[in-house]
Write a structure and sequence with these properties.
299 residues, alpha/beta, 8-stranded mixed sheet, 50% helix, binds guanosine-5'-diphosphate, signal recognition particle binding, GTP binding, membrane
């Protein structure tokens, strides 16, 4: 099994465990369907997904009484059908340059690490990348991004703690234009506690960007920590209201049994999920592959 499955072992184990013993080659009667639905809910797939899968199972005409495997197969297919529409890679358009990717998310979600991983992947694809340290709220955030930039070997625009994020973004776009850099990845402050400040800041960044490059930001990526389960879902809702989120990255799927949250997010919001984080190094951002994930989650 590949590394992705390895990374999702805990998630895989969870639904498996929750389903084990439910199907014993007997008829899938209401009582068993109820228990399967419950198992899906406690595995973080969400009530809507659980109801959908229950419905499909109840309508399926099995040739014989279903085996555990047959049921899991149907569950995996159903999960895949929910995940496939959101499995959208983060595409970089050819024009205009630079393409600007704004990265948002609460502190601790894995925002900085995800920026580093994205930068690394783009460098591997021969793009020119620059980072902008727009999280001026925390000195540590600036330093951390600078460390990553050095390690990956990409330039970075940074200012002082408490500085103006929009002016850093402005400098970043100017510099990219001068240097012919393809992609500017912008870190932002993750202050969800103060929504109006966050909104003002994002609005200001947008305004500055819009003046230089009318279509920018080309992508607004919300980074979510899978280990927070339901919290990740409410963050999609809240950030969705204050920023025009164009896609998601879900991190820390390696350390959690809560990978089912990917399905809940896909079902509830339908936003593209560009990639998943399965570790702390720059090599640990993986494309979102609906079939692989469906199989991992279905166990
Ligand atoms: P930020 O505050 O949102 O910028 O979050 P950071 O990027 O600093 O990440 C917070 C912590 O989570 C750090 O210790 C990271 O190494 C860790 N982290 C980030 N992404 C992942 C991931 O995909 N898997 C694991 N296991 N840890 C991660």
């Amino acid at each position: 099994r590949n590394r992705l499955f390895g990374g999702l072992q805990k998630t895989s184990g969870k639904l498996s465990e929750n389903l084990t013993g439910l199907v014993t080659k007997a008829k899938l009667d209401d009582a068993i369907l109820d228990q399967i639905e419950e198992a899906l809910i406690i595995s973080d797939l969400g009530p809507a997904t659980a109801a959908q899968i229950r419905e499909t199972l109840s309508k399926t005409r099995f040739e014989k009484n279903p085996t555990d495997d047959a049921v899991r197969h149907i569950i995996a297919d159903e999960i895949e059908s929910i995940l496939a529409p959101v499995a959208v890679p983060l595409e970089i358009d050819a024009f205009p340059r630079p393409q600007v990717i704004l990265v948002i998310g609460v502190n601790g979600s894995g925002k900085t690490t995800t920026i580093a991983k994205l930068a690394h992947n783009y460098i591997e694809e021969d793009y020119g990348v620059m980072l902008a340290a727009g999280d001026t709220f925390r000195a540590a955030a600036i330093g951390q991004l600078q460390n990553w930039a050095e390690r990956i070997g990409v330039p970075i625009i940074a200012g002082k703690e408490g500085g103006d994020a929009a002016s850093i973004v402005y400098d970043g776009v100017k510099k990219c234009t001068q240097d012919g850099t393809d992609i500017l990845i912008v870190d932002t402050a993750g202050r969800l506690q103060n929504k109006s400040e966050l909104m003002d800041e994002l609005a200001k960044i947008r305004k500055v960007l819009g003046r230089l490059n009318p279509a920018a930001p080309h992508n607004v990526i919300l980074v979510l920590d899978a280990t927070t389960g339901q919290n990740a879902l409410s963050q999609i809702e809240i950030f969705g209201k204050v920023a025009n989120v164009t896609g998601l990255v879900m991190t820390k799927l390696d350390g959690t049994a809560r990978g089912g949250i990917l399905v809940a997010a896909a079902k509830q919001f339908g936003l593209p999920i560009h990639a998943i984080g399965i570790g702390e190094t720059m090599h640990d951002l993986k494309p979102f592959n609906a079939r692989e994930l469906a199989e991992a989650i279905a166990g």
